[in-house]
Every structure is written in structure tokens, then in C-alpha cells.
Amino acid sequence: MKGGRPRAFAPRQAVAAAAVAILVLVSAPLTAAGIDWSTVLRPATLEFLHLGNPYQTVGSLGPPWLFVLLTPLALLPVEVGGVVLFWLDLATWVIVSRKLGSGSVVNVLAVVTSPMVVNGLLARNVDFLVMWGLLLPPELAVFFLAIKPQVGGVALAYLAVREYRRGGMRRLARIFLIPCLVGVLSFLAYGLKLSDAREAIDVPWNASPLTCLGWPSLVIGLGVFVYALTRQDSGDGARMSMAATPFFSPYVGSQSWVSVLPALMKSKALYLMWAIAWGWIVYVLVR
Predict the structure, then answer these.
(1) pLDDT, tens digit, for every residue of 99-155?
(2) DSSP class of residue 5?
(3) Rg over CA atoms, the chain
(4) Which of 96, 215, 230, 225 is nearest to 153 (CA)?
């Protein structure tokens, strides 16, 4: 053994060790379907397949193409579909963190074990699908960013500004025409159910800064969005703009705070956020 002082246990190693432990805990209940999948997403998708109104399912607010994407999973037994959704969610975050982050193992682990990602994994939600809007061409990205406006709404606005700058109204129309037409047809076929959205604002788990802070939240969001517009040439604008979304939305579930992760993936602030978020959760649980 070589002499000298032993190496200190670096913060990144601590994050990696804790992340592995969290992954083990999260992977344990794989037989569970997940509350969002079993009570909202799957029933709404089956209603859609049976030519019914998917928005009659309480909590179902996604666009029609979300039900198309979920159809193969909805046809499986609820537990099996939930397990597949879990692994699709996890795989997506690995891909996104490697594409947008440093690509290191510790960086990937910090992302996939962040509290908001873990929440989505356990609930079997679809916030992860929005992240594909940061990786795909604009013609496809627009569909994924619109799946959950409280996650991808501002990034969608950024996409519109960016594509208008690149090709004017003609390019903008080429990208947004089809999803807008589908949205109009969906409204004509199913109507617009706003009661669930209004009720969501008052639920105890609403983590929207807009609801808590009011107009200062809008100022923060606008500042982040303007900053994102200045980062267009660097290629970081889209993910920076996504971080502004929670500050504009009157409802943000805790898992939907994944919108800030892409902006942090190249920064050491990711590890700070990870430590603060888990520290707060532990404090709340043990106090």
C-alpha cells in the first residue's frame, strides 16, 4: 500500500452512494401499478380506445396524442403496463441526462434519483415524455412539449419564438398547424373540462410558486425565459426556458418540477439541488 493521506470521501461519491440506495428502494415495488397510471392515465386511455370521452376520467387533462402513445401499455394488465412505464421513464432520464448533462455516472444517478424523478417513477406519471421535446426535431418536439403544459409550456413558447426567427410564419405554421388542428378537433369532440384544472389548484400537494407568491413568481419566470432567449445560439435555450415553466403555472405537482432538471444537468448546482431537496424531505419526515 502506498503511503500518504487517504483520499477524502468526495461529495460526488456521497451522492452516488445515496443514489444507488434510492434506486434500490424505488425499484422494489415494481409489482405496483402506480397511482397515476392505475387511476387516471390507463382508464382515460381505455376510454379513448372505446371511443368514449377520456376527459371524463377525473384528473385526465392530456392532449389526444398522449392516449395514442399510451395505447400499447393500456392494453396490458394494469400492473404490467405500470412496470413497463416505470422502465420507460427511467430509461428516458438516463438518455436525457447523458445527452444534456456531463454524461458521468454520478451525474446520471443524481438526475434519476432526484426527488421529482423518483416521485414520477413511483406514481407512474408521464412527465418524462415531455423531455423528448428537448431531443427531437421541432415537428415532433411540439407534440411532446404539449403533453404537460406545467412542464413544457414555456419551452413550447421558446420553440415558437426560435422557429419564427428561423423561418417566419411559414415555418411556424408548418410546425404548429397539425397539433393545433388536433386540439381543435379534440375540443369539438370532447369539449373542454376545466373543473379538474380548477380543483387541482386548491389541492394540498400543489407546489406552484405562482399560487404561493403571486406576481413575483411571474417576474422570476419572465426573467428566466428572457435569459433563455439570449442562449439560443449556444443551444441551451430550450432547456433553460423549460426551467421557467413552474413560475407561470397555477398548478405544479411535485413531480412536475422535473422541468428545472435540464437546466441544471451541466452544472454542479444539480448536486446542491439534490442534497437540499432530499434534506428537506428527510427533515419533514422526521420532525
Answers:
(1) 998 888 888 989 999 999 999 998 899 999 999 999 999 999 999 999 999 999 999
(2) P
(3) 20
(4) 225
287 lies in some domain: no
Residue 113: burial class (beta carbons within 10 Å; 0-12, 13-18, 19+): buried
Q: Which three cell numbers stand for residue 213?
A: 407568491
The domain total for the chain is 1
- Compute the half-sphere exposure of residue 195: CA atoms within 13 Å on the CB side of its CA: 6
Q: With contact defined as beta carbons under 8 Å apart, do 134 and 262 qualify? A: yes
148 in a structural domain = yes
Domain membership of residue 40 as a residue range = 32-278
* CA gap 154, 223 in Å, rounded: 12
HSE value, Cβ hemisphere, 13 Å, CA-based, for 141: 24
Q: Cell digits for 42? A: 390507463
From CA 175, how far away is CA 34, in angstroms rounded? 34
pTM: 0.85
Beta strands in the chain (DSSP E): none
- Judge whether 4 lies within some domain: no
> Rounded to whole angstroms, how far apart are CA atoms 97 and 157?
23
pLDDT at 265 over 70: yes
Measure the CA–CA gap between 41 and 102, rounded to whole angstroms.
33
d(CA 111, CA 134) in angstroms, rounded, equals 16
The span from the CA of 119 to the CA of 84, in Å, is 16
Residue 48 lies in a domain: yes
47's CB contacts (< 8 A; 6+ apart) are 53, 54, 56, 57
pLDDT digit string, tens, across residues 17-40: 666 566 555 554 555 678 899 999
Three cell numbers written together for 11: 461529495
